[in-house]
Amino acid sequence: MQEFFTPIDTNHFNGATKYASTAYGKLIASYQKGGDFPSLENIHIAIIGVEEDRKALNNEGCGLAADYVRENLYKLFQGNYPTKIVDLGNIKKGNSIEDSYFAVTDVLSQLLKKNIIPIVIGGSQDLTFCNYQAYQKMEQTINIVAVDSSFDIGDGEKTMNSQSYLSKIILHKPNILFNFSNVGYQSYFVDQNSVELMDKLFFDTHRLGKIRKSMESVEPIVRNADLVSFDISAIRQSDAPGNGNASPNGFYGEEACQITRYAGMSDKLTSIGFYEINPAFDTNKQTAHLVAQMIWYFIDGFYNRKQDYPIVDKSEYTKYRVSIKDHEHEIVFYKSNKSDRWWMDVPYPVNHQIKFERHHMVPCSYSDYETACSDELPDNWWQTYQKLG
C-alpha cells in the first residue's frame, strides 16, 4: 500500500510547530516526510488525500486540496473520546488516470477489509467510482448517498468525468449498487429526463429546499448508506468559495457539518469522500477550513455511534405494527430503546434473502410511522419493496 503514497510535509503548515497535546496534529499518526508509514493495527479511521483531478470539469486544481484541509484539521482538538486515526498521505497522480483509479480502488479495498473507515479528500468526484469498486471484493450490494447540487449522470459521454460518474456506476458489471440517494439537488441544475430516470431506477432524490426545511430528515437517508460522496459545490459559495462550480445557493456550512455528523453516527457507513475542493478559488482558505470541521464532525459522530444496527436482539427495540387498508402487507416498525431511531422491516422474496438481507431493514423516521398510521405507504418503504421484488 505504501508505494501509492507520498508523505506529508507539514513544514509549510501554519502553526505546525505549536500543536497542543490534544490537537489532531499531535494525535493523528501521519505519514510524514522522513518518517515511517503508519501501522494500521487497531486503527478505526484512515485519512487519504488523492491528487487526481484530470477529469474535474471546470475545476482542475482540486487535486491539491488535501494538504490545505489537513493544515486546518490538525489544529482542531479531539472530542471527549480517545481516537485511533492515521493519515496515510496523498495518493499521487499515476502516469495515466487509470493508474490513479487502480491505486485508489486498491487502497480503499484493503482498508475496508481491515474494517478501517477511509476518509477521502479529493480530488475530483469521479473518484467515487473507485470507492464503489472497492466494495466489489466484499461481495455485498451497497447503498450510496451523494450530497450534491446535481445527479452527475452526464449526457451520455463515453468517458467518465466528475459530472458523469454515476452513469458509470449504474452500467458497471457486476453491479453491486442497491440504492442511490441524492441529497440537496437544485432543480435548475438537473435535466428533467434525469429526474425521470432516477424514478425509474427507484432511487430517491431530495431537493435542497425540502431538506433544509427539516435537516433531521437527512439522518435516516444517510443512516442507510455504506458510502457517502460529498461534492463541496453542494454548499453555497459564500460558505465554500473554493470550487470552480460554486453557486450562490446550497447548504450552509453548519448544515454540511450536521450531515457529516449524521454520517459518522451511522453504524452501517464504512467510507466517506469529500471532493472538488479547489485551493485556487478558496478565499482565505475558508473552504479548506470548513471541510476540516466537517471531518471533525464526522469523527465526532463515529465515536458516538450507538451500535444499534443491525437489529439482532429484538428485546432492545419497541415493535409497532401498522395495517394499511387495501394493502397485503402490514408495515412493521422498530424503534431503538437506546437511540430512539426508527427502522421499517420491508418483506422480500425468500430466494433473495442472502443477496438483499442487508437492505430489508430500512432506516426511517417517526414521520414515516405517522404516514403509515394515516393509511399511506411511506415512499422509502415502497421504493425498497420494488427493488427487493
Descriptive overview:
This protein has 389 residues and is of the alpha/beta class. The chain contains 13 helices and 14 strands. The model has no long low-confidence stretch (mean pLDDT 93). The protein is 30% helix and 18% strand. The radius of gyration is 21 Å and the shape is globular. Strands 1, 2, 3, 4, 5, 6, 7, 8, 9 and 10 form a 10-stranded mixed beta sheet that branches. The protein has a 4-stranded antiparallel beta sheet with strand order 11-12-13-14. The longest helix has 17 residues, at 97-113. The chain folds into 2 domains: 2-302, Ureohydrolase domain (Arginase, Chain A), CATH 3.40.800.10; 314-388, no CATH class. The two termini are 40 Å apart.
Mean pLDDT, to the nearest integer, reads 93
| Structural class category | alpha/beta
Helix content: 25-40%
The CATH class of the largest domain is Alpha Beta
Compute the CA-based radius of gyration. 21 Å
Number of helices: 13
CATH topology of the largest domain: Arginase, Chain A
Instruction: Give the uncertain stretches in residue-range form.
Output: none
Cα distance spanning the termini: 40 Å
Whole-number tally of structural domains: 2
Biggest sheet record: 10 strands, mixed
CATH superfamily of the largest domain: Ureohydrolase domain
Strand content: 15-25%
Named at the architecture level, the CATH assignment of the largest domain is 3-Layer(aba) Sandwich
| Secondary-structure element pattern, one letter each | EHEEHEHEHEHEHEHHEHEHEEEHEHH
Give the overall shape, derived from the CA principal axes. globular
Number of strands: 14
